Amino acid sequence: MNIANWLHNAAQRWPERGALFEGQRQRADYHSFAAQVRGLAHQLVHEHRVEPGDRVALFMKNCCEYLELMYAAWWIGAVVVPINCKLHRSEAGWIVDNAGARVVFSDDGQVFAPGELSDDCQELAGRGRVVAAIGEALATPYSCNADHLAWLFYTSGTTGRSKGVMLSHGNLMAMSLCYPLDVDAVASRDALVYAAPMSHGAGLYNFIHVRCGARHVVPESRGFKAEEVFALAAGLGEVSLFAAPTMVKRMVEQARATGYAGEGIKTIVYGGAPMYLADLQDAVDIFGPRLVQIYGQGESPMTISALSREQIADRQRPEWARIAASVGRAHACVDIQVLDAGLRPLAAGHAGQIAVRGPTVMHGYWRNEAATRQTLVDGWLLTGDIGYLDDQGYLTLTDRCKDVIISGGSNVYPREVEEVLALHPEVFEVCVVGEADPEWGESVVAFVVGRGNRPPDERVLGAWFIERMASFKKPKKYVFLAELPKNSYGKVLKTELRQWLKEAAAS
Ligand code: AMP
Q1: How many angstroms does the Cα of residue 304 sit away from the middle of ligand 1?
Q2: Pocket lining: 272 vs ligand 1, CB cutoff 6 Å
Q3: C-alpha 244 to ligand 1 mean position (Å)
Q4: Are 15 and 33 in contact (CB under 8 A)?
Q5: Does ligand 1 have an atom closer than 6 angstroms to the CB of 293?
Q6: DSSP assignment, residue 492?
Q7: What's the pLDDT score for residue 200?
Q8: Which segments of 13-156 are extended strands (E)?
């Protein structure tokens, strides 16, 4: 059950099919992809003494080598530790150390200063490695069972110190097999474009595309630029990509400016953060039936629920807005429950913590028994997200547990306040958090980025809000910003906004 068998199989079946692309230029077919992986695997074993179960960290921007190095590690039964490339070197060093990695690959092998990594860990250049032909050595991947550890997924840590989510080969396979069932059919002519970081969702979608012998495309910028994605789509055709909602928003802006309408794009899978209805409407108007939503988290990677392209695109349906504001229905391989504070299941329509059970759910947090015990309870993963199921099985997220604002004893879900403000034509982006308030316990504060960077009038926003929502949810304060602080996965850093408020109150 080694997931590297999927590459082995693809290379045997379709050796001449294009596999790895830098921009529009083919770099390797499936035969040479697998040959390079075996050569790298050989180096890991014989030059760097990597053994099954050892951790191999990657601290690099997106590149074709990223896939080769990950598969080389799996080929020999090692565990990959992909690290968000936007982290500071000291944060990355903390992860390398926490994972107890034996090697860490960076672009040129010279990111960490001498003494910054433990003596047991070696930094190596990940790009441009030359490997020797190795004949029949390591002809097949290391044989392991489904529980063997494959990927330590370090959480984005927006609410505290990052934790290493333990994902096994079985987890990754279950996740991948749900993709064609619930997200999108995959064909060999497809081109998966890695515009979002490969250390996260975009990288996790590689497996099913390897299994189907599809093309893997790393943009020349090694990151995300809307115009580059459009050019790749025009040149390669049948492009699919994973995109955080902020990326979709930028694609919409760029498409509007250039008259582009989605030509060459097959599917945009969005998720990882809330997509506001106002933004989704714009995206559907431009891209039509090309959008699919997923809801997942590192602890059940990319696989909790999905909303299909038909449901997103069918704007004529009377219940469109309600369904489009949801995150869809449970993926084929998981059960979803909504629990009250005492972890008892709630009936449809009642909001509580979302819990998930199934073969995609992590095995626990790496070397963190206490956090594992709090999060995996009676076989259920407690997601820390709040939401409700309706009687047709649609799940709607209201917020993260930690983000709910309790004002005057009433719960205010920032997401619903954001949805209303995001609809205002002068609002480009918005994020709502709670601020300590002597009278109300907490009060609602809205951070707003104005369209065209012009701050909208507070009174106008107040009147807009009051026409649409209960007054106890109304922001007591507006703060206008040029942009919202976000991490490289496109999640707004609410902790920074709260900190900003604390500092402003203290000064
Ligand atoms: P991560 O583990 O970094 O992928 O973060 C997962 C978290 O992102 C989830 O627990 C949710 O709070 C949020 N998230 C993921 N997908 C969605 C979605 N489709 N809509 C809203 N929030 C999402």
Answers
A1: 10
A2: yes
A3: 10
A4: no
A5: yes
A6: B
A7: 94
A8: 18-22, 25-29, 55-58, 79-82, 103-106, 122-125, 149-154
Give the pLDDT mean for 433-444.
Answer: 89
Q: Supply φ then ψ for residue 486, to 5 degrees.
A: -135, 155
Using CA atoms in the order 363, 365, 371, 377, what is the torsion angle rounded to 10 degrees? -10
| Alpha-carbon span 420 to 67, nearest angstrom | 41
CA distance 212 to 460: 53
CATH numbers and ranges of domains, the chain:
5-389 (3.40.50.12780), 405-506 (3.30.300.30)
Per residue in 23-43, pLDDT (tens digit) is: 999 999 999 999 999 999 999
Q: What is the 3-state secondary structure (H, E, C) of 394-444?
A: CEEEEEEHHHCEEECCEEECHHHHHHHHHCCCCEEEEEEEEEEECCCEEEE
- Put the strands of the sheet holding 427-437 in their side by side order: 427-437, 441-450, 477-480
CA–CA dist 343, 378 (Å, integer): 10
Show Cβ contacts of residue 340 under 8 Å, excluding neighbours closer than 6 positions.
346, 350, 352, 353
Question: Which pair of structure tokens corresponds to residue 496?
Answer: 């920074």
The b/e string for 94-129 (b: 16+ C-beta within 10 A; e otherwise) is bbbbbbbbbbbbbbebebbeeeebeeebbbbebbeb
Question: What are the residues whose beta carbons fall under 8 Å from the beta carbon of 138, sequence distance 6 or more?
Answer: 38, 41, 42, 45, 75, 76
The response to whether residue 327 sits with its C-beta less than 6 Å from ligand 1 reads yes
What global pTM score does this model have?
A: 0.91
CA distances from 289 to 149, 192, 195, 328, 335 (A): 37, 18, 20, 16, 27
- Nearest-5° Cα angle at 272, 269 to 278: 75
The torsion region of residue 155 among left (phi > 0), alpha (psi -120 to 50) and beta comes to beta
Pairing of strands 329-330, 300-307: antiparallel
**Separation of CA 404 and ligand 1 centre (Å):** 15
68-85 confidence digits (pLDDT tens): 999 999 999 999 999 989
Q: What is the CA radius of gyration of the chain?
A: 23
- Average the pLDDT over 448-454 and give the result: 91
Cα distance between residue 102 and residue 97, in whole Å: 9
At residue 386, φ and ψ (nearest 5 deg) are: -110, 140
> Which parts of 176-275 are beta strand (E)?
191-193, 215-218, 239-243, 265-270
